[in-house]
Protein 1
Amino acid sequence: MERLQKVLAQSGIASRRKSEELISAGHVKVNGKKVTEMGIKVSASDKIEVNGVPITQEDYVYYLFYKPRGVISAVSDDKGREVVTDYLVGVRERIYPVGRLDYDTSGLLLLTNDGDFANKLTHPKHEVNKTYVAKVMGVPFPKDLKPLTQGVKIDGRKTAPAAFKILSTDNIKQTAIVELVIHEGRNHQVKKMLEAVGFPVTKLKRELYGNLTLDGLKPGQYRSLSRREVNAILELAK
């Protein structure tokens, strides 16, 4: 069961706020009866009409996408650039990304039409870990990256503590591969954190989201999440 205004918003009729206005103004019927009160809940079997026109309720869908570099984490772009939904050509539901990855960052991105699912995963208080692998300029020692484990200040605010591993180093090219695990989702966070300790990022990929991996996928490919996977990552978000 879902709140009526949420179902209207997810069906594409209007935003959540505009849907509430439609309800209070008497434009919505449920099973032939006009509804003007907020908070009423409906199921998939209920017949909902807006100004006499029936709406179609979508089933919730969940996808794991391997985002390539050079793709926008959005459903449209006013500059005509590629967006993530361009790759999910077989999906009819109105899906959108759960959070975002930068234009030049590749890796694991979730897409859904379930707003509650998206909110639970993106809110910092739920602390769902995200694992990134970064190529950085310079060759750090563990002591150089240790401040990340206490949090570093970016954009005037201190980050939550992160975990790191130095996966490899190249003393000739003066570069290194660093793994960083965070649970926040601030703008350009991984890049800014590593730059704050003196190691600018030249390439970045998200490898893990909670317990979800990119196994079996190539850049540009996607797959559906199983019900077990959805339940498991929601359990992490509790």
Protein 2
Amino acid sequence: MFALPDSWVWDFWLADDGERYHLFFLYASRALHDPDARHYRASIGHAVSDDLEEWTRVADALVRGDAPAFDGLATWTGSVVRHPDGTWFMFYTGTSLTPGGNIQRVGYATSADLMEWQKSAANPVAQADARWYETLGTGQWREEAFRDPWVFADLAGDGWHMLVTARANTGPADDRGVVGHAWSPDLRNWEVLPPLSEPGQGFGHLEVFQVEVVDGKAVLLFSCTAADFAESRRANGTTGGVWASPAASVLGPFDIAGAQLVTDDSLYVGRLLRRRDDGEWVMFAFHNIAPDGSFIGSISDPMPVRWEGRDLRVTPAAVPSSSR
């Protein structure tokens, strides 16, 4: 487990440089007292490990920029990929607070060694396009959602794809969550494209995507709390948590309406990783809600995953009994 005694830790992403594993995570000081306040105080921390269980914290990766930068409020969730020339790219969410609400856009930073990062002067490189996506003030949502970039290489060698948490510009206000999509030929220049799913699947938003091919089957992971379900899904009493949607390919089609719950809301933000030593797939998540209802804010040990028919199953790790 990865935990910080003086800070909450939540959303995270992983990278493997071939020798060590790297954990990038959002964190904020517990001196805030209110865990809901953490989102506007988030920085991106960094830890390394040889075995995915014992982690050593190193220098932080990124902090927010100075207003009016696109990340002038906070730096949020992202992903890391390596360009063929050896450069590491970290795509991340930048948030800025306007009189109308929170606007989320995507930027990137680069590194030669995963340790020291330089933000791109071109930021932001992707944001909600009103042709397909809800923008601030045009819907009935608390923010302009275009965040949590998951970037991966096209399997056919045709550039790079980015999946983002986004909302469609049509449909009931509580049921607009979609798989946002952008494409790049080189990781530096991005074209925002129509979403890869339709609204009306039962979710107000789909958070923190990851798509992988696990034992020959494509699967999309996302997270959503019960508070952000559409009314149609809230009515059946399902808890929130980490969800898995089997897919025809890494670009869909995705059966969002038929997604299966992988964990309940004691865990949140599922991340799959294939271990280097044995080739087995495992999942991590952050410890979210304790049995006493408090927010925990730490990251689990690796949890084995397996397919049971069309459902992805995980063997949960122990969840701390309280937030301390």
